[in-house]
Fold this protein.
Amino acid sequence: MSTKFAIVVFPGSNCDEDAYYAAKHVLGQRAEYVWHKDTSLDGADVVILPGGFAHGDYLRTGAMARFSPIMQAVRAFAAEGGPVLGVCNGFQVLLEAGMLPGAMLRNRDLKFHCEHVHVRVEQTDTPFTLACRQGQILRLPIAHGEGNYFSEPDVLAALEANRQVIFRYTDATGNVSDASNPNGASAGIAGLCSESRNVVGLMPHPERACESIVGSADGLVIFESVVEGVRAGTLSRSTSTGSALQAVG
Amino acid sequence: MLARVFVTLKPSVFDPQGQTIADALHTLGYAGVGEVRQGKYFELELDTAEAAQAKVLASEVADKLLANPVIETYRIEVD
């Protein structure tokens, strides 16, 4: 049984096709687009909130998208422990929706960064990193103007204590430095998970790095992780029992 | 009734746009300008003649949408 990906399409999403292509054509899984006005995820195993500029990013990035009708279904899916991945604008939507803590500020240099960066996999006990090695360095593209992750110091401390920082910007050898931080994000945070660990957001674009012909295939492991988890039954939603990855709410 | 909502970044949040504007003003010779903080301004036409009611409504929409409490605060004027 293949894994079914639901890819949410907001007006202004522009990485939805890349995510669909990665899921369906690179990984050979099932994938369906779900329009933001829909109210059902139609039995999906995984939900992807793709990159882009949902609702034009008017007011703040992701600020309007959280009120789209489909978000109620996404919240319910996440509350049951279903794996949700927010990429770039999808990460911003998860922050605005309060499904992940913190907020995004303009990049510290006010420039839109479109380049490949390195991130270190900090934790492997999430649905999207379970096939990674702890400390694995991934070379992934970024393309954003507002990826400067911000949280108050007490929230940052809690994120570290709970091991919720999943990806951190580093240099090619895995060292965290100011020079390897493309946007000024607090603690070099490139990606986070929820306390329940099943909701993950990251600024880099793994769906744009699934084949070596496009410069990197390092993003593939993120999608392979969730496919492996669904296949193994370790990502069962809260209706079933006994899994380290099962959500608690 | 008109409500004016001023949304600004919290003091603890770095404002790179404000910093750049301050730098530009210094380049233009305005040495007397110190720190600059950029914010957002909204005018809301409200279907009420009660100032108190207008303020409650404006606060509600500011909390819900206009400001992100993680990084921003707001101030409301009604008239």
Summary: The first strand of chain A starts at residue 4 and ends at 9.
